[in-house]
Design goal:
single chain, 354 residues, mainly alpha, MetI-like fold, 2 domains, globular
Amino acid sequence: MHNYIIKRLLLIPLTLLGILLINFAIIQLAPGGPVEYMLAQYKGINTSTTGNINSGMPNLNEQKYQGAKGVPDDLVKELKKQFGFDKPIHKRFIKMLNHYIHFDFGKSYYKDKTVLELIKERLPVSISLGLWSSLIIYLIAIPLGIKKARKDGEEFDMISSFIIFIGSAIPVFLFAVLLIVLFAGGTYFQLFPLKGLTSDGWENFTLWQKIGDYFWHITLPTICIVIGGIASLTMLTKNSFMDELSKQYVLTARAKGLSENRILYHHVFRNAMMIIIAGLPSLLVKILFTGSLLIEIIFSLNGIGLLGYEAIITRDYPVIFGSLYIFALLGLILKLISDITYSLVDPRINFEKI
């Protein structure tokens, strides 16, 4: 296992390099950029709703077109220098890599904060959503999956499967809109707040008021993420237990007269939970950095997902690439932790052969 861990650690820098190189190349080919965005602002073009910063904008490679559009050449040159686009592509990429090695991700183009400060500011919101969602998903999905395995083919199994599949088939953002319409003052009831994680004047609340206000705000976003993530874990749990229940050692235990509960929780449980425990780190990555994106946008939660969305719309490259680097690194580390966890749960698994 030690050799496997060393190999995986050595592959992390190469993997990060590949991820950054591919995304850097895509960004260069994509239309628009921070210079075009600033010129759009200069010309009074609204890009906040569509993200289209090219509509009505000059082609920066055609100087005559710039003059026809009334954009001063000096302004374009100054913006290119300000954003570092006056240097060749390969020099910009090498400079970025040199800074990233030292975890220097620079400052946002449009906010007077460094990338690390922005991530540190927004990360607690995403972590909060991810942790509570993961906890609730595991608390519901694992017992439900076990019960479905025990009652396979019965009425409870079929009805619960139908409900789970319906829930997983509906996009998460539709659940969010439905909950807002029903419970956040959209049409019917105004039981929960529409946006944010805290109320105005939260700093002056007592401790218990702060806790209550926090859970009041996080209820609807958490429900949306749980509904979207519970199906896969439930079916994974059921299939894992079904597979174990069909093995010879279970039949032997039953022949010895052991109760079903003893067989299930003293013999089957550990083996069946291996794949579920090993998948926890990857589930956290999914919920923290992908699953909550639309939820953060819909409920106006200042988390990592909303930060990335804003950075893409405004072409804030330091935030885009800095976030990508950090989350890719975190994802690779959590994947390694997942493999180590798998090996600890089941010592028979040998990653040395991989």
